[in-house]
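The authors assume throughout that readers already know how a fold can be written as discrete tokens. In essence, backbone conformation is discretised, so a fold becomes a row of integers matching the chain in length. A single example would do more here than another paragraph of explanation. For illustration, here is how one protein appears when written out as sequence plus structure tokens:

…
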Amino acid sequence: MLQSDKVQSSEEGKIRLRNAYKEAGLTIEKLAEKAKVSQDTIKRLLGTKDYLNGVERRQVESIAKVLDIKPTDIVDPKDWNPQQIPPEFERLIKDKTESFSGRKFVFDAIEEFFSKNPNGYFTVVGDAGMGKSAIAAKYVLDNPAAICFFNIRAEGMNRPELFLKKIREQLMSRYQLQDAADADLSTLLIKASERIGVGERLIIVVDALDEVDQESTGNLLYLPTILPERVYFLLTRRPYNQNEKRLNVSPSVSTKELDLRDYADRSSQDVKEYIWLLLNDKEYQQGLSQWIQKQNLSNPDFVEEVATKSENNFMYLRCVLPAMANGFYENKPLDELPVGLEGYYYSHWEIMGMTTKPLPKNKIKIIYVMCALRSAASRAVVAKYSKQNELTVQEVLDRWAQFLQKQENYQPPRYRFYHESFRDFLHRQDIVQAAGVNLPDISAEVADNMTEGLFGYE
């Protein structure tokens, strides 16, 4: 955004501006004099004089500085900082924020940290499925000024050079940075910090540090050890040991971690709120009501029981509740529902017949080939590497739909596993042994062709 770009005050901003200059003991004339703007400019922001094309951003900043308020107290934040989400992350953010609820205690802690420290790293830690990516996505959606990068191992979007490229593009666009096309992250942040408006912050959201693919030493994604003032990072990651932390910073840089596992009571409240939300969602309401009635349960009892079985895991709820509504657990009583995310995965594995004798080797191989492929692949490609016919592959794709993301912007459509935690489940030693697969052989079977770029024909 350029300082000469035009903006308009929001209805709420008009009221705040009027109250602010009166509380400061100023008149319109005095405010105009101190801010070095015309009286007409202030009247336009107050709504007492018609706009032409708006008011320049620099004028709003000058007025806000005199009144010791933020420009976004006058102009709607979404107009002041138009959303600039990279297209690579739009689908993920939309998906993660649908039916989002709760987590107020997390956002309150983030805001408190940003408000009390001149710069720093705030990290949200939690197990798979506890909602870390949803928190990151929701923060980006609600804070248009935020810069973002989501590590997505399944798409190969998890290397330092890609991170720097995407962050550089966003910073150069938002702050109109010159001579920065080859700048490293520290230089970019310094340049951007010089253009941060009055009362503003530069916040960079980085999701899933645990998925970063980086062999060399140093901080993950080469995150800077020193940050300029008013520059903050919001990070998410799974629990780690000290050797895996790889985030060392200068004593001048503030850091804080919020471990979701330490907030069981608050997470439980959020989980129950989410269950109630889906109970009243038109898409699931009828199916869930029928299941509850069949179990002779009340809605409150259902919420309590399912919340307990979820172990405060939102991914569990996103899988189990729609499955209930669609009749997947039609013949299972409440006490036989899976417990926890891994319990859900194993239950699904069994229900899909993956443990029956004789083992359905062809279908098991299809699942593991998709796991080895990593990138999204079409039905034809999955059939090619699993050496199964496309009809069998499509049957597996249909039955495992809730674990798959279908990318219909490609023709033919491509599929990939939606949950990285499901990949982790597939690599669990007992599951691998019971399935009778040889992971190195499957990986080797696809690796050569993948590196030769044989997806090009799609």
The chain is about 50% helix and 10% strand. Residues 57 and 221 are 34 Å apart (CA to CA). Strands lie at 6-7, 55-56, 120-125, 147-150, 202-207, 231-237, 254-259, 377-378, 404-407, 414-417.
